[in-house]
Design a protein that fits this description.
The structure holds 2 protein chains of 2 kinds.
Chain A: H1 5-43, H2 47-53, E1 60-65, H3 81-86, E2 92-93, E3 95-97, E4 103-105, E5 108-113, E6 119-124, H4 138-150, H5 155-161, E7 164-171, E8 174-179, H6 184-189, E9 196-197, E10 216-222, E11 226-231, E12 244-249, H7 253-261, E13 267-268, E14 286-301, H8 322-331, H9 334-342, H10 371-380, E15 386-390, H11 396-410, E16 414-418, H12 425-433, E17 439-444, H13 465-476, H14 479-495, E18 499-512, E19 515-516, E20 534-535
Parallel strand pairs in A: 1-12, 1-13, 15-16
Antiparallel strand pairs in A: 2-9, 3-4, 5-6, 6-8, 7-8, 10-11, 11-12, 13-18, 14-17, 14-18, 19-20
Chain B: H1 2-25, H2 58-93, H3 96-110, H4 114-125, H5 129-156, H6 159-166, H7 171-207, H8 219-227, H9 235-262, H10 264-269
The chains are: A alpha+beta, B mainly alpha.
Subcellular location (chain B): Cell membrane
InterPro entries (chain B): BP-dependent_transpt_permease, MetI-like, MetI-like_sf
Protein name (chain B): ABC transporter permease
Chain lengths: 536, 270
């Protein structure tokens, strides 16, 4: 800033100092790289280099991911991160969910349900072995169920397993599991983290070592960087196609994209920013897979029910009127919103169900975009002008969607006052727990979460006995009845405009050309299953 | 040379004020109208600076964004000055032990970063322009207290103040009649520098989603939105970036220029 004579001298001195500092920093940097190199090289394996050096010996797969697990025990936390890398790859369950959302045998060759649908009999595969070679027995299954129920495991899993009344070991490969009430949901839960069958010998060290029965075992875990899974040479089923599978974790989506572009990754497990897809448009190098996820981006409406025993929420009274809720749905051009907010990637849904739900039906036409009809309904309901609070979670997709929704609601006479809520803490406190909101936006990632509309205390504050009965009948019925009743529940909430389901987030997977067999959809098991993947 | 600095600063500041004033009477397009134009259009005609990811005209948003920047700056600096200046004079007036205690408290407050305070307030009261202004304002108070006290101490030691005190003039009158006019230039410089910091802080908070709500155009939020398009549409980040840089540079240059212009000692050197 100073321009006169003495300060110039000062500037020169400053320049010399800066020069010295830069030189020192450069030295320091070199020192860091020099010192760090021997340890970081094996931590970040270069698949290309390894492949050329030992083409016949080491087959590797490197997967880029964003959410790093805090523990190697997927049953210890509600977070899906551990499940993503480890379920089906390292840990196996009695039954599994395939890419279409159907239940398939895994450790159990077959299963039977008793006439009253209270007792499930699982017949284990006699060849199944844990990675230390001990057989997977009915005792081990019983011990795992007991561990979920009584050990230090995640509350969500405990809740899922709470319907189990008793386990009975019939013989080493047969187990009877008796429930307190018929529940189809339980069987689906058994295909996720709750149903993991760990080696009982490894329970004590479950958070640092893996003791599964899957085609891969834990090689190295470098917190903050990666998890390396190695081939389980003893695997009882079809052996893994890779000697090493690495999950590399990135905090910044741009860094993950850059790694993919420079050839360090074989797969991006879920691209976080759809607008960056254009970087992978070179089809000779990359393949882009657009599948679906279980995450419904929902414009939630405070329906204003006041169930007994629950502190009433604070919502605009007008939203109790189904005509107002329908008008809000009709005011929003969801296709345009998807195009604007998420680059047209994703699926339009008309209810709280996604295409991978077995009962899914296309309900997007239930209340189609029609601003004129929306205005008419608002006038009929006596609210030609309405002011509502719109409190999205402060997440990129939610705040973009809020901006779009506010603009479109404005066109039919609804003034939306947008206030972002920090996510998760503040959003959970204000919206989820206190139901102190009119409209909010967040993605619901839980599988089968249409059942939340059967709970009038949930933050939708939606109380419809028909939906509650359908969900209860679904859980108690056969698999076929389950599908029919869940479909009914989905349709009822859609007709009632209990919320506006904006779209389902896409599962955007980018692979190097030559990598095949990547599951297209992120299904409700939340696992990133590498067992089907092959690399040319 | 010093004059040139001041003039460049004044031109930049006047430019920002002009943009903000213009936005009240005219914007080329609706600055909040989603989907009215193609998305991510390059600069051209009729969208001189192109459109953003929502299909909103970027130039219109820059115009209205100037309003947010100035609004936050004025209120935040206003809070800081209204609280900080009287407290600074008080600190100069207090007996030694009182002043020491107060200044140590100010040191503690000074150590607390403005952004952290803003995140805290946004967590408690919710993210809004008002919380951002309040947080930036509170965090700037210690700077005003220090500057004011330093100036007031020398004024209070002067003979005419001693004379006024001896003749029984009440303290508040001395503060208003003698102290304030003589430290006005110090406060002015501090206000100008703080203004630049407030604009930067508002941009940072909006970038983080803790400031201005999404429906209100703000330079920081524009920059945050542009980040995801940095590789595909790098031009998106340029305009709000230039606007923030220009405004901050302008207020800083005005601050520097004013200091040099008003401080007789520095004038002698040049």
């Amino acid at each position: 800033m100073a321009k006169s004579e003495p300060p110039i001298g000062a500037t020169r001195r400053a320049r010399r100092t800066i020069g010295a500092a830069v030189a020192a920093m450069a030295l320091a940097l070199t020192a860091c790289t020099g010192g760090g190199a021997p340890t970081t090289t094996p931590a970040a394996p270069d698949p290309g280099a390894t492949a050329t050096q030992q083409p016949a010996e080491t087959r590797t797969l490197v997967v880029g991911a964003t959410a790093e697990p805090a523990t190697l025990d997927p049953t210890a936390t509600d977070a899906a991160a551990g499940t993503q890398a480890l379920l089906y790859n390292v840990f196996e369950t009695l039954v599994r969910i395939d890419a279409e959302g159907h239940l398939k045998p895994l450790l159990a060759q077959a299963w039977d349900v008793s006439e009253d649908r209270l007792t499930y009999t699982f017949k284990l595969s006699p060849n199944a072995r844990f990675s230390d070679g001990t057989p997977v027995t009915a005792e081990a299954v019983a011990a795992n169920i007991d561990r979920i129920q009584n050990g230090t495991t995640a509350p969500k899993l405990k809740k899922a397993m709470s319907v189990v009344a008793a386990t009975a070991v019939v013989d080493p490969t047969t187990i009877d599991i008796t429930l307190t009430r018929p529940s189809v949901t339980w069987l689906f839960d058994m295909a996720g983290a709750a149903g993991i069958v760990m080696n009982p010998a490894g329970f004590a060290a479950a958070n640092s070592e893996t003791a599964g029965s899957g085609p891969l075992t834990l090689g190295r875990w470098l917190p903050g960087d990666s998890i390396v899974l190695e081939k389980n040479a003893q695997y009882w089923g079809t052996p893994a196609r890779f000697d090493e599978v690495t999950f590399r974790y990135f905090k910044d989506p741009n860094a993950m994209n850059a790694s993919m572009l420079s050839g360090q990754l074989d797969i991006i497990s879920n691209l976080q920013a759809p607008e960056t897809l254009a970087q992978f448009s070179d089809t000779s190098r990359f393949t882009v897979i657009e599948g679906s996820t279980d995450a419904e981006v929902t414009l939630s409406i405070n329906n204003g029910a006041t169930p007994e025993g629950v502190t009433p929420g604070t919502g605009n009274e007008a939203l109790k009127d189904v005509r107002v809720r329908k008008a809000i749905t009709m005011a929003i051009d969801r296709q345009a919103l998807l195009d604007t907010v998420w680059f047209g990637k994703g699926t339009l849904i008309g209810s709280m169900s996604v295409p991978t739900d077995v009962w899914y039906e296309d309900l997007t036409g239930t209340h189609p975009y029609n601003p004129e009809e929306a205005k008419r309904l608002l006038a009929e309901a006596g609210h030609p002008q309405l002011t509502l609070r719109l409190q999205p979670a402060a997440l990129p997709y939610a705040s973009k969607a809020a901006q779009f929704v506010a603009s479109q609601l404005g066109a039919v006479g609804i003034t939306a006052q947008v206030e972002e809520l920090q996510f998760p803490a503040r959003w959970v406190d204000t919206v989820l727990q206190k139901a102190d909101y009119d409209l909010s936006i967040v993605a619901h990632v839980e599988p089968r979460d249409v059942v939340t509309y059967a709970n009038p205390a949930y933050y939708w504050r939606y109380d419809n006995p028909a939906v509650q009965e359908a969900v209860a009948r679904a859980d108690a019925g056969t698999v076929a009845e389950y599908e029919a009743e869940m479909r009914t529940a989905s349709r009822l909430i859609a007709e009632d405009a209990a919320a506006v389901w904006l779209f389902a987030l896409p599962n955007l997977v980018v692979t190097k050309t030559g990598v095949t067999g990547v599951p297209e959809n992120a299904n409700s098991s939340l696992a990133f299953d590498v067992t089907t993947i092959a690399k040319a | 040379m010093k004059r040139a600095e001041l003039w460049i600063g004044l031109v930049l500041v006047a430019g920002v004020v002009a943009l903000a004033l213009l936005s009240f009477v005219w914007t080329p397009f609706n600055p909040t109208g989603v989907g009215s134009a193609p998305r991510l259009a390059p600069p051209g005609w009729p969208h001189v600076l192109g459109t953003d990811h929502m299909g909103i005209d970027t130039f219109s948003r820059i115009l209205v964004g100037a309003r947010s920047a100035l609004y936050v700056g004025i209120i935040a600096v206003g809070i800081a000055a209204l609280v900080g200046v009287p407290l600074g004079i008080l600190a100069a007036w207090l007996p030694r032990w009182g002043a020491e205690g107060m200044m140590r408290a100010v040191d503690v407050a000074y150590a607390f970063p403005a952004l952290l305070l803003a995140i805290l307030l946004a967590g408690v009261f919710g993210a809004s322009t008002e919380t951002a202004m309040l947080a930036i304002g509170i965090a700037t108070i210690p700077a005003f207290i220090r500057v004011t006290r330093a100036g007031a101490l020398s004024v209070l030691a002067s003979d005419y103040v001693l004379a006024a005190r001896a003749s029984g003039t009440p303290v508040p009158v001395i503060a208003v009649r003698h102290v304030l006019p003589n430290i006005a230039h110090l406060v002015g410089v501090q206000a100008s520098v703080s203004f630049a910091m407030a604009i930067l802080a508002e941009a940072a908070l909006s970038y983080l989603g803790l400031g201005t709500p999404p429906t209100v155009p703000s330079w920081g939020r524009m920059l945050g939105d542009a980040q995801t398009y940095l590789f595909s549409h790098p031009g998106q980040a340029v305009w709000p970036g230039l606007a923030i840089a220009g405004a901050v540079l302008g207020f800083n240059l005005v601050g520097d220029g004013l200091r040099d212009f008003l401080d007789p000692k520095l004038q002698e050197v040049s």
